[in-house]
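Section 3.1 - Work completed
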Amino acid sequence: MSTIQRTGNVGAMSSWVVSKKELLRRYRAHASRKQKGGGTQVENCQENADAEIDGGPAWLQLSRVLQNLTGKGIATMLGRLSKHGNERVVVKVQDAAAALRELEVQKRLAGLDGFVEFHCMFRCAGDKQYIESYGTAAELRRSRVCAAKGLEMGVILMPYYDGGSLESMLRTKNQSGRPWSAEEDALVASVLSKVIRDVYRAYETQRFVHGDLFAKNIVLTAEGEPALIDFELSKFDEPGMRFWRNVESLLGDVGNYWKQRELDDIARTLFVHMAYDVAPSRRTVDDLLAALAART
């Protein structure tokens, strides 16, 4: 594949899949030019980004990030983003408030399975310097680095999952026109079961609700292991009704592509939980997963 591929462009957010080698190569080229005195203008370091990808300005923002990292620092950062030996990362440039929100959620979910881990950097308003965030989001908020100007831009670097999103997998399969095989059915059922169990564990410990629990926000490894991404709408200390509504939304979304009648039947059983604000428990979640296994 190309070393750089655009994956999204929504509002102020742009994202690409980028080869880690390409990031290092560009960083070293930028650093070399700067040392020689020919790269003082950031625009000189862009290396024909407009010709290579759609959206040079956002790549230019990333170029500024690279110039404020040491060679060892960026190599270490990219090493932490490895996922099953994958040599690519996803780079997402967005406004600071959204990036900070995602960072806060990730920090609180640290150690739980099923949620993507990423590296985050921020830029102060009006400055070119970026802050690498290795501490907690609360520490970043308390930092006086941006106290006078506030945060302007956030950059998230996260592992690239070879299997793509669950939504893209389901859509591609449906568009093929071929019937679902037993192995494919088992994969989708397994992904759903694991995601539901993972979000329940997060709810059990912190009453966490993802808030945007749809197939597009579930990414897969090449082996079919899922992870949740995009935490901008996530909340903590939520009532049980919100948890069940999230799960019902997921079943309805996947049902648009796969076993719609069966998933609709299972989703209807959740209405009682939502109506009476039944707190999720291991028993109720186990009952749900048992119904999922029996019907799919």
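Second construct:
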Amino acid sequence: MTNLMNTWWHLTADEQAALRPEPQDTYTITARYHDSTGWCFDLPELGTYAELLMQGTELVLNYWYHRLTKKEAGADAEMTMIINKQRPPIFDTHLTFQHDDPHAEGASFYKEQATGLSLWLCKYLPWLMHGKPSDLWVTFRLVD
């Protein structure tokens, strides 16, 4: 069991800053499905494990998993999300910034193109990408 007191969320601002990666245009994150909690991801380099994807993000992942597999997400479901700040030649969907979350510092809502749903992205996004892009392009790949 992971000691949640050692996660990124419990680090001081200085400790978080020491872990901040160099700016990149593309980040790859693997999401996996747990029957009891839904979609989550790990960023071990940041001390983060089983971070839940929620407030619409899980619905978008369900849509894309079903679109790629023709089945509902279950305990073995896992997808890689390649998230780009620059429009790549090939991508699955486009996210457009809607507004900041007034209840969660650094978090924001984006609209996903294929479903028309709003999804919530926590403050990892601006922290990793050194700002909140107005547009993001995402490619999904199944993990074997």
